[in-house]
Amino acid sequence: MRNEKGDHSMNRSVSKGLGRAGLAALAAALTSTLLGTTVSAAAPAGAVARPGAERGCPVVYFDLGETLVHTAGDGSIGYLPGAASYLRALRARHIRVGLITNVPPSWGRTDAERAARLKTEVDAAWRGSAPFAWQDFGDRILTPRTEAERKPAPVLWQRAKADSGRCRLVYQAETADEVKVAASLGYVPYQVGQVHRPSFLPVGLIELLDRRSSG
């Protein structure tokens, strides 16, 4: 079980306690020691993403299960530790978020229909006082249209990239294979749930993506 209090402290120190130079230094450190080889595949050493590949306006995409939410043995679903506060932090900084998640293609003919079924299924099993923040994701919930599009096939990441213009994209998931595919397509990747790392990519580093593009 991850230490939520420790994660909050780490993210606060990154987002609030560091200046621009400190964030740049931390970005380089995370590239080499925290994000691992998957980030190196998407960015040169000392950078969080390939310079000039995209504009700022970062969009953070997530897997859903075991990344933002957990399904318990009794079938109930709830936020993973730190996930709700992380989404609130992104919302407060006006950073857009999306989901790239596998659901049965039979759940609908369109992403909107499949997303509606996904919301119904999750909400029916939800536990906790705060509901899942579906409103944060808008229409950025991408799901497979066929079995062949299910992750780790690259189609959903490609569709998300096409829908995001030239904005820089982040992908966070618990599965190494998915993170590697996202990195190969130019996303800034982050594997969640790893020991000795923040639970999620620190918000300050995501903000730095915007500043590196506009600076």
UniProtKB/TrEMBL annotation:
Ligase keyword on record? no
Q: Which domain of life is it from?
A: Bacteria
Q: List the signal peptide residues.
A: 1-41
Q: Which InterPro entries match?
A: HAD-like_sf (IPR036412), HAD_sf (IPR023214)
Cite the Gene3D superfamilies for this sequence.
Answer: HAD superfamily/HAD-like
The keyword Signal belongs to this UniProt entry's keyword annotation: yes
Q: Keyword annotations for this protein? A: Signal
Q: What is this protein called?
A: Secreted protein
Give the originating organism: Streptomyces melanogenes
